Amino acid sequence: MLDIKAVLFDCDGLMFETELISQQIWKDEARKLGFTLPEDFFINITGSGGEELNRYLSSIPSGMDLYKVMKKKRFDISFWSSIQKDCLNKKGLITLFYWLKQNGYRIGICSSSHRTYVEALLSTVSTPLEYDAIVGGDMVTHAKPDPEIFLVGAKILDVQPAECLVLEDSKQGIIAARRAGMHSCFIEDTIQPDPTMKEMIEYQTENLEEVIQLLRQSARR
């Protein structure tokens, strides 16, 4: 029986349908700079941040120039606020948040992105989501796959790592959850699990709504 007291959410691609939008912007801006992104580009950057992201982008010609352009677009709050309400919501987002709150779970959003960006995405939901904490990439020293962001989230929520279920759609996030000593559930988005990921994935669902059944079943074991 799993004694889960808190659920920690990634944001991009997990809560919101932003990955395809972001990937297209990356491709368009790279094309403007005159180069094509490597085939494994999105596997390497999804869920990443900080020094690891900078190191990878620095290994690509014009990678850091591209990153500067992307950061400016990413933090353009007016762009996200102009988006129709709920059109970015991943399936089951509102249902899962409501169910978790009704059943006494603590909720943390732990994203490699800056907190202001996460808040901008949350503003696109018509029904305000109830949560207990946001930990952005700008609030920690080390980015995923380092476990710091999840450990900080657990500390804020006043729970032990083993009492947390991490919901992720990235390799970096799954590795970080394992290193934090937390349970993890992989929810497919644009990244398909490679062999390393498959070894680390504890649970897997097709969407957020299925997490409810996962928690119900786990509680009965």
What is the CATH superfamily classification? HAD superfamily/HAD-like
SSE string: EHHHHHHEHEHEHEHEH
| CATH-derived topology | Rossmann fold
Terminal Cα span: 5 Å
Mean pLDDT: 89
Largest sheet: 6 strands, parallel
CATH class reads: Alpha Beta
CATH architecture: 3-Layer(aba) Sandwich
Which strand order does the major sheet show?
3-2-1-4-5-6
Spans where pLDDT lies below 50 across 5 or more residues: none
Explain what you see.
The protein has 221 residues and is of the alpha/beta class. It has a single domain, classed as Rossmann fold. 45% of the residues lie in helices and 11% in strands. It contains 11 helices and 6 strands. The chain has helices spanning 19-32, 41-45, 50-58, 63-74, 77-81, 93-102, 115-122, 148-157, 171-180, 195-200, 210-220; strands spanning 6-9, 106-110, 133-135, 164-168, 183-187, 203-205. A 6-stranded parallel beta sheet has the order 3-2-1-4-5-6, sandwiched between helices. Strand 4 (164-168), helix 9 (171-180) and strand 5 form a beta-alpha-beta unit. Helix 1 crosses helix 4. The chain is globular, with a radius of gyration of 17 Å. The model has no long low-confidence stretch (mean pLDDT 89).
Write the layout of secondary structure elements.
Layout lengths: L5 E4 L9 H14 L8 H5 L4 H9 L4 H12 L2 H5 L11 H10 L3 E5 L4 H8 L10 E3 L12 H10 L6 E5 L2 H10 L2 E5 L7 H6 L2 E3 L4 H11 L1
Parallel strand pairs: 1-2, 1-4, 2-3, 4-5, 5-6
Helix pairs in contact: 1-4
In brief, what are we looking at here?
This protein has eleven helices and six strands. The chain has 221 residues and is of the alpha/beta class. It has one domain (1-221): Rossmann fold (3-Layer(aba) Sandwich), CATH 3.40.50.1000.
